[in-house]
Amino acid sequence: MRRFLALITGALSLLGAVAVAIGVVLVVVPSPAAAEGQKRCTVTDDRLRELSGLVATETGYIVINDGTDVESHKRVFFLDADCEVVGEPVRYSVGGPLDTEDLALSPDGETLWIADTGDNVTGDRRERVAVWSMPVSGDERPVLHRLAYPDGEPRDAEALVIDDDGVPVIVTKVALGKAEIFTVDGELPSGDTEPGKMKKLGEVELPTTETENAFGSAGRTAITGAARSPDGGRVVLRTYADAFEYDVADGDLVTALTTTEPRVTPLADPFGEAIAYTPDGTTFLTVSDGGTLDAGEPIDVLSYAPTPRSESASEANADGSEESTASWFDSLSTQETAYLVIAAVGLIGVGLVGVGVTGVVRARRRPVKRTGAGGSAGDDGSRGSTDRPRGAVYGGGPAAGAHGARREPGHAAAPADNGGYGGGRPGEGGRPAAGVYGRRPAGGAGGPRPAAGGQDSGGGRAADGGRGGGVYGGGGVHGGGRAQPPRRDRGGAAPRDGRRRESGSGPGGPGPESGGGFGRHGGRY
User: Fold this and answer.
1) pLDDT at 122
2) Would you tell me which of 298, 330, 359, 373 could form a disulfide with 326, CB atoms 3.0–4.6 Å apart?
3) What is the rounded average pLDDT for all residues in the chain?
4) Coil, strand, or helix at residue 50?
5) Number of helices followed by number of strands (H, E) in the chain
């Protein structure tokens, strides 16, 4: 039973270890790379190698470069559906921008906004930032609007969206932790003036993902672009790895970004810093900054299908509002579901390992109680009345008086089995077969049964109350026949062959004074 229990618990331990290993592998192995976006077109103009802002129009795209020292690159470029430059790029006013990072459209689609808010920590930090506005048609030059953060501290920001009132909302770029949300505090200044103050609206913390990208964990946190859907009902933030889309209720951008869970769409841009919605709002468009790419590597405008909303039923409350009836599990994203499965596998594995180890330890520590010639005792150390002692040599029954065998008053103990090497037990009233292997010895060695006081090597019944001698204390070699109660004749003990033996004579060897080898009475040990 112990071996069976140890086998079962060992198997549980192995199964638990495998389950834990599977959980560890699922956690350690990174998620597969995001699916490639669908190419819309390739930008081939050499002036557009550092694209950082993008919006889509009915006829094509509007793009801007990241911060650059090349004057001809500091323009607003209009592209057709094939990504070819159309017309003359639009120049800035008042000396031009410093570090442009993103483009955004007003809710009515009539105004194009430009975020001049970049502030890389490797360069001189900025005391003020700016946004620019111009007609989406490109008929007029952009107008400058200078701004400063409320605490006067510099920040790098690369994401811009416009609220329902037409006011710009800026989201900062951080490599770790929460990004900040700022907007204009009061009236927006225009022209070459002192900067207007901004105010902080809140913080946004992106969900953790495992999407592969060029910057690892920092690339999954740093917000590099933003856009709002044409109907205003959704807003998206992007990193170097993913797009995070939020639902906007009643035009409240801040509440959407700070209190709701986004849907995550993995992106595969090599160095993506821009995102936009198509005019119908059904698709994301992205483009990479090619400044870090090889010279021959193409810069493509890519499209992605946003991760859809989870299907859920809703029912009306008493006040008329709707309450979602989706279950807690249905509200989990694909990644959250995967983590939940991983955790469940790990917990199951740990539990199985614990059960297995506990079982093995208990099985090894459990004592085995034995009594007599090898049988297991009961809980109180006693042996049941029907328990049969195991045999002496090679499974045979123990000889009379040997090692704790039970005895009846006035009788020698009767072994359960007779004969050496498992000799058989005689039938009722029968005579035990003497000698080796359960056979009666022939004349010569062992000889006939001895007279009173005699003893032979084959064992036999001892007269005058003596117990059977024999080797190892049994009747016959290796635990032979059963000793019989003493029997006296008036003429003295006589052998069954009718011949009288003198005490101590005959082939059976010495009399009781000598006792025989290893006997219970007399002799040597």
Assistant:
1) 74
2) 330
3) 73
4) strand
5) 4, 23
pLDDT, tens digit, 9 for 90 and up, residues 199-239: 999 999 999 999 999 999 999 999 999 999 999 999 999 99
The distance from CA 175 to its chain's CA centroid, rounded to whole angstroms, is: 28
Contact 75, 90 (CB under 8 A): yes
Residues 509/463, Cβ–Cβ less than 8 Å:
no
- Predicted TM-score (pTM) above 0.70: no
Neighbouring C-beta atoms of residue 18, cutoff 10 Å = 14
How does DSSP classify residue 117?
-
Short-list 301, 277, 272, CA closest to 288: 272
pLDDT of residue 410: 45
Give how far Cα 20 sits from Cα of 29, 140, 355, 465, Å.
14, 64, 14, 72
Q: Which helix (H) or strand (E) holds 202?
A: strand 196-204
Burial class for 499, CB neighbours closer than 10 Å (0-12, 13-18, 19+): exposed
Torsion 475-481-483-488 (CA) sign: negative
The pLDDT tens digits of the residues spanning 432-468 come to: 444 444 444 444 444 444 444 444 434 444 434 444 4
Q: Give the number of other Cβ atoms within 10 Å of residue 120's Cβ.
A: 13
Q: pLDDT by residue (tens digit) across 358-414?
A: 766 676 666 555 544 444 444 444 444 444 444 444 444 444 444 444 444 444 444
CB of 502 closer than 8 Å to CB of 495: no
Separation between Cα atoms, residue 31 and residue 287, nearest integer Å: 23
Distance (Å, whole) CA 236 – CA 317: 30
Torsion, Cα 89 286 253 121, to 10 degrees, reads -80
